[in-house]
Amino acid sequence: MSKRYTLLKKEGKARRGRFVTPHGTIETPVFMNVGTLAAIKGAVSSMDLKEIGCQVELSNTYHLHLRPSDEVIYKMGGLHSFMNWDKPILTDSGGFQVFSLAKMRKIKEEGVYFNSHIDGSKIFMGPEESMQIQSHLASTIAMAFDECVSNPSTREYVERSVDRTTRWLERCKIEIDRLNLLPSTINKEQMLFGINQGGVYDDIRIEHAKTITKMDLDGYAIGGLAVGESHEDMYRVIDAVVPYLPEDKPIYLMGVGTPENILEAVDRGIDFFDCVLPARNGRHGSVFTKNGKINLLNAKFQLDSKPIDEGCQCPACKSYTRAYIRHLFKAKELLALRLCVLHNLYFYNKLMADIRDALDGGYFKEFKEEKLKQWNLNA
Asked: Which residues are within 8 A (CB) of 186 and not within 5 positions of it... i.e. 6 or more apart?
């Protein structure tokens, strides 16, 4: 396998890297903007994503399999063509739905039997099916099919689940290697990231990290966090696991998180992040600023002529006031959602760019302390 990830420099455990993919180079640390159904909720287009500095878009295998179906997307030339996005795309494997749709699924060795959350119809997804769907989607990075367990779970259950996730990963690797050789495959360079699991049990996490590292994958994720455990437990697990993952491969913390979470996780050696939080918050009028989070629905913003965040260069802040955006929410105008989602995603993408600059300049520790103090003082 040719070298794709270059570790440019470190500050403590924090890593500044560069990841070369078939759809462009990713500068890390990076936040991936979540477009579950090949679209960012809040009427944000792929052209908008470029304007706000997005490097990687993330879509979901399970949801796209249901609608419009991976067959439709394959016939339309893959996700990049379908959604008019020429930069990297990462597709989640459907493994998180094993957790989030717990009342609608049954786990077996061969895979998971779901009842569709849309119409109740029966769906089966195993490692091979997940790889086949992701191959149809032709994403840049495919995630291995795994089980995300809730926290807390018993040690006995977590051990059984992790062993099965390892067996599923072996099957994913065999299948993606097979698919990448087929003449009908759109992206014959599709990469595979494995996922470390183990709940909040450090020793299980470490052993699993050692096992999957031997498989020499394109990258590694830490999954099963931000699903019920405390922030302290999450940071402890990251500290435990990262030393046992390869230094020459990107490390992705799945589903995390707040700006504070991101700074803490970068400091612990994480390269990739994703979370629905900025878009979801934006759709409810909750926006991030350099002085902390504010809610534009509050009455005090009714006559506020300032932008969401003074000095911000996002499309919303360059053109509109807090008072106007608050009015849009009260009037139930969709433009309110669009402007706030654009702002929040810009805020996250700009935060990552500033983190990379701080690592390049050797002042990340000071940058982190300043940001955390600023956000905390104004919370």
From this structure: 74, 77, 78, 135, 136, 138
